[in-house]
Amino acid sequence: MSFGPPVGSPFSGPSASQSSARAGLPFAGMPSELAARAEEILAEEPEHRRPEITFSPADYDRRPFTLRRFLSPHRGALAVAVVLVVIETVAFQAGPLLIQIGLDRAIVPRQAEVLAIVAIAYVAAIAVNALAARARILFTGRLGERLMYELRIRVFSHLQRQSLDFYTDQKSGVILTRMTSDIDALAALFQDGLVNLAVQLLTLVVITIILVALNPVLAAITLLAVVPAMAALTWWFRGASERTYRHVREKIANVLADLSENLAGMRIIVANNRRRHNAIHHANVVGEHRDANVSASTVGAIYGPANEAVGVIGQAVLLLIGGRMVLDGSLTVGELFAFLLYLTAFFAPIQQLVQLYNAYQSGQAAVAKLRDLLALDPAVAEAPDASELPPIDGRIELASVGFGYDPAVPVLRDLSLVVEPGETIAVVGPTGAGKSTVAKLVTRFYDPDNGAVSIDGIDLRTVTLHSLRSQLGVVPQEPFLFNRSIRDNVAFARPDAGDEEVLAACRAVGLDDLIDRHDDGLDALVHERGSSLSSGERQLLALARAFLARPRVLVLDEATSNLDLVSESKIEAALDVVLEGRTAIIIAHRLATAMRADRIAVIEDGRLTEIGNHAELVALGGHYASMHAAWVAHT
Asked: Which domains occur in the chain, in start order?
């Protein structure tokens, strides 16, 4: 039984989820019944100015990342924070001194007027402390968020600056750790740790001065007997905690890396019945992280009670000595009482510093990891004197190119190839021959170890990356689609393109059915990686993206290798539209695609062995002819 108008009745329009279901798409947006409430919440949000971000692949801070260097541009704000800390600390530590005055000058001699003045002064000190603490928390909170904003932008920009080899060598989970766990550790250090560290250190200084002023003898006993014992414990703790917290940071990176890999490969895990095995493996990874945390906690558990025991013993000794001094008249009751109160306050910051040192060590371990990341220069670097690549005709030349992902294992050997403007050339060959490597060199995802790659006679290493890639289009074997609308995915390379241009690009490559069957049209949401679309639709979206970008040179890396025959025929028709008038390099797995090219280059073992059109290569009777004969027999 249900209440209200039936779904789909004239009284209720289709919801977003229903529209997606009718179009064959899983729902990826916000339910319509929540949209109104979401608008109300957004209306209450404060306005924020649009951030001004500058990005350069070559011009960035290459100095080692340290806390001092990172904080130095904010010296003025930090000075204000220190002033607020001083006011807060001094006001808070006035209490025991006012108690001593009240005991010795008001209660013992029975002076009510003096007691009233002391009480008023005590209330005023508390008020000043509260106001200063409030101002300090607000100020340092905003400062900490601003620092974290700058750091996140800096780390993310540096990740954008890295070359493809970085993402090949690094686990995605480890990279995520740099942006999440490590920066969170620094956030805790900036927003609470450093300020509290300043508060506790200043408290120690103020209390030490007051203890010496109250009674130099008792102060000397404290500083010469109790403090050295605590210092020795702290010195041991410093080294032990530094090792354990660095170990903790390494293990949390392993946890996130394993989690990220399992999430990305869930389909393969399920298909190969590896869920139980992976659960056991992850339990071992998490267990190593647990053991690292237990080691860190053990160090703290030894240090904390031992330090507290030293403090209690010191207080007992000082109470005994101070009591005898009161009995012989060299010390007043008020002074002894104030001294013991300050002594308790003296040990409390030391205990607090233990916890703060834990946060500091965690932050320092994060700084070390971020320093290593920010010190990495991209393997494909933009030259300092790089010039803008002018509008190109599209003549591509690989001159005696040698390259290997591992320099000891060459992939391409002395390869020379010329693609004329407007020509479509297909690159074929056995798996591992180096076909996709040619595409990566032309797009300058990598630089050759030997020889040169040029466009219109200009070495790609001498031009800016932006001016180069703005004139190149790449359609990979598995196009990546973002969790955004169809419009956003197609206009990814040209976000300023209007709806009419986007729609024309979609229709040009044959995406009419996808757009027309969805009520939202271009606003239809696409799941991450295009999981809500078929393989053919994902590839057509990638071709529409390339078509809208209007590149002069287009590189297709096995764009039809994973498609059925019907989808392949649609892609082939779309390619005719996209490739018209453009220089194109097609890394071909299927000979049906290669046969449509103007020329075909055959690569074997990293070398160019044959080149010509389809008929010429078949007549040549070489490797391509054998591939063609096998293909004919198979089809």
From this structure: 67-374 (1.20.1560.10)
